Amino acid sequence: MLSSIRNFAKSWPARILMAILAVSFVGWGINRTGFQAVNGDEVIRAGSRTTDSFVFKREYDNYKKRLEGQQQGQPIPQDMAEANHLDTVVLNGLATREAFSELLSRSGIHPSDKLILAQLEKIPAFFDPITGRFDKKTYQRRLADNSMTPKMLDAEIRDGMAAQNWGAGLQNGLAVPRAYGALGSVFALETRDLSYFLVTPQSVPQPPAPTDAQLAAFVAENRSRLSLPEMRLITVVAFAPPPPESLGPVDPAALKKRYDFRKDTLSKPETRTLVQIPAKTPAIADQVVARLGRGEAPAAIAKSLGVEPVEFADKPVTAIPDRKAGVAAFKMMPGQVGAVQGDLGLTVIKVVSVTAGREITLEEARPMLEAELRKTMAAEKVYAQAQAFDDAHQGGATLAQAAAKAGAEAKTLGPISAQGVDAQHRQLQGFPPKILQLAFSLPAGGESEITELGNGVSFAVRVEKVIPAHVPPLDEIRADATREWQLRELVKAMETRATALSARIDKGEALDAVAASAGYAPVKVAALSRQTAQAHPEVPREILGRAFGSKPGEVWTTRAPNALAVGRVENVHMDPSPEAARLAETNRAELSAAVFREMAESAQAYSRTKLKVKVDAARARAAAGFGPLSKDGAKPAEKKG
After folding, report:
1. What is the pTM of this model?
2. How do residues 107-123 score in pLDDT, each as one tens digit?
3. Which residues contact 261 (CB under 8 A, 6 or more apart)?
């Protein structure tokens, strides 16, 4: 299906559509001269848009966190990030995004401030949890927590909405010709008659045990795969909170003090439902009071005055923005109407209903407050233990001696890799990645400060020994190397057998006859289609892939689980049923969506080329925390000694 989509994208209808798109780009007033190089702290320049090191670092960190989230929170070490060129991935993606946003802006696609504000007001993180309303301080704090400014967020939302509007305009009405849907249905509903046989490991001569020379050559050829990563022997001292039951009873005086401090926040305050109607003059306020007293609807009164009523549903006094008006409203009786000169102006208030507050008692709050106090007691014990350890260590005691004096345990672990794997390739289960990350940032003999781990636990770590990455001696890996060498030789023998048998079929011998002559049982699957392939679990997935990717009569060899398959598609049958017509229309919609995606990708690539986007790869590497590259593109060698 994907190949069909790509073939369509290269066809004359798609070329016409792309030409129209390109013409629309030409009229956007693009600066054809561009510029020569990025300046200052710019990592990316796309027209009038620039990205500095700070913004790039934020994008890089967010991308890295997303990757770590996809692998159950396992951190990505710096050397692995560098080896996989994460800085280049982020640099290219960000440069393309900025170029596309610049072209959309030049085309005149500018979301209004009203739309941006509407989007901001839909983000729950910016709402006060008590009042339920958008809160500027909460908004600014959330942005600061994410290393953003209001201007940066505004730009992100504006760019996203512009791209969304552009995409909607392009996609609406886009439909591939019906012939392409028909081709897709033929592609999906065709059936194939498949024949194959399996060359198994048991059907070829078993390789003998290798000589030492053969093993040494095998190890040399597979040095990178057989190497053990850098490992470390580490000693860890952990300071964890004691079990709650070991802490003894809670001090009644401390409990009473905590209750008095928390009583107001734990109790349910009085809430009211009320409506405010602003009034410009006392005379207008008197009219509003009279009309509300006669039972007129507040919304109708406000509309007649050209103002908006402000309604509060079951809110405490702290939720009323006008403090003076709120205090007055909470002194009124249910159903009462009155004019109030508030801090924000003259307003008429009608109290619709009152829900009495309730003060929580000490006994009701006791379980929660005792749990809080026990947590505090546990934290104090952890702090005292860590302080005793630190005092002893500063006084000259070793890590283990200081731990013993503080009543903590020092455990020596390893050798272990940065990913928590030991020399026997076993994963250390449940070990906090933060400890390994800190340990691998220290030199041999290095010790960390006491570091927070979370949930009240802290730790200190010492690196006892650093074992560089190396290939173990042959005697240590003889069994594994022998097994892999024999497996390689076995696969070679199977490939030789499969190649010889497929050559005989290519020359005209029947597949069944060739299989029988070699002692193999042929497998036949009739009327195999892409839609019914899952109904044949006995056919390996690799064989199904070759069956649908090869021409009738073509002989092929492919890997299968614990075997090599030699096969051929004998016949291909087309389906002329009404189902083909129904599927043709469905395929047409899917193909249209696929064409739109490829056109969008092409438009993004075009924007980057058209604007002659400049990037500074060296500055991007530095922002990501990587060292500079030498002139030949390799990392500079580390100095020894």
Report:
1. 0.44
2. 888 888 888 777 777 77
3. none
